[in-house]
Amino acid sequence: MKIEFAYNVGHFETRLEDYIYINYRKINNQDVLPYFIFLNTVVGVKVEKITTRRLWLLEDKFKRRLHDLIHFQLIGTNGTHIQSLINLEEICDGCVNTLQTMNHSKNYKKLHVTDKLFENIAEYCISKSKNKEECFKELDNTILSIISCDELVIWINESRVLPDEGTDPKYDHRHMPREVIDIILRKWNVKSIKLSILHITNEEVCSVEWLRYDYFTRVRLNDPYLENKQSDLNFSHVEVSLSYSLYCVRDLGNRQLVVNEPKGYDNFIPNIRRMFPTDQISMELPHWYFIACNNIEKKMFSSI
């Protein structure tokens, strides 16, 4: 079951927060409980997988109520059938019920990670070490090879800010620790990649502690691509989702920029090919934003 809050990114400031989509069906706030009851009692649905997206953007009262309904109407009723629970922790900061469910519902066919997770891993390893060699040893011990996944989904926020930017924040991609990404790809035996470029997430402010140390290589997908080393890995498929992007999808389509400075997205596809080599790359474009698709196709093929 997929439960998400979807909205037109171009109308972010004026969006309503009293509805969600359940398996792509729009459900208003007051209809969520009757709908769950209907699924349980009338249809007799046995929910095995629950994936939530962007529920943290909902109004607080609705968000707390929805969290409890998911636990007591879906997970509570069908607890023995739950195999996968993805992303519910972002609306409760990992409450006891959510963490307990996640502990016994691991899904290794598809794993979701964020750019924030890469920062957290880097900073954890730094905190446990006294130098670069110890840091990389800690990294090797932290990322375990007992996990493997067919597809790794990486959520990348294209509008993060630095903690000290004050009243004039520079919304942009932020650096990620390359060695953390690479060791995850290797030790988890990742076969394919999905990069979801998101205009906004609940992890807006990036971590900077790891940047104070010259341990990890800093990478961004919109950096000059010659600065990024070519990976020796190869993936069966790389999918790039721009359904919830604003900056990237705008600049890739060569639309007239509404800002004076481009954000470097001419390097976007070449950097993806360097970091995640593949013979098959696809791109999911948004339905709400007109872009010149032929220009994107030219950029994809010219990057081979």
Describe this structure in words.
By secondary structure, this protein is of the alpha/beta class. It folds into two domains: 102 residues, no CATH class; 193 residues, no CATH class. 31% of the residues lie in helices and 18% in strands. It is built from nine helices and twelve strands. The protein has a five-stranded mixed sheet. The protein has a five-stranded parallel sheet with strand order 6-7-9-11-12. Strand 2 and strand 3 form a beta hairpin. Helix 1 packs parallel to helix 2 and helix 4 crosses helix 5. The protein is globular and about 55 Å long. The protein starts with a strand and ends with a helix. The model has no long low-confidence stretch (mean pLDDT 81).
Summarize the structure.
The protein has 304 residues and is of the alpha/beta class. The protein folds into two domains: 2-103, no CATH class; 110-302, no CATH class. The chain has nine helices and twelve strands.
Terminal CA distance reads 37 Å
As laid out across the biggest beta sheet, the strand order is: 3-2-1-4-5
Oligomer: single chain
Count of alpha/pi helices: 9
Number of domains: 2
Number of strands: 12
Helix content: 25-40%
Largest sheet: 5 strands, mixed
User: Which structural class should the secondary elements be placed in?
Assistant: alpha/beta
Order of H and E elements: EEEHEHEHEHHEEHEEEHHEH
Average pLDDT, to the nearest integer? 81
Shape category: globular
Low-confidence stretches: none
What portion of residues belong to β-strands? 15-25%
Rg, Å, rounded: 20 Å
InterPro entries: Regulator_protein_PHA-1
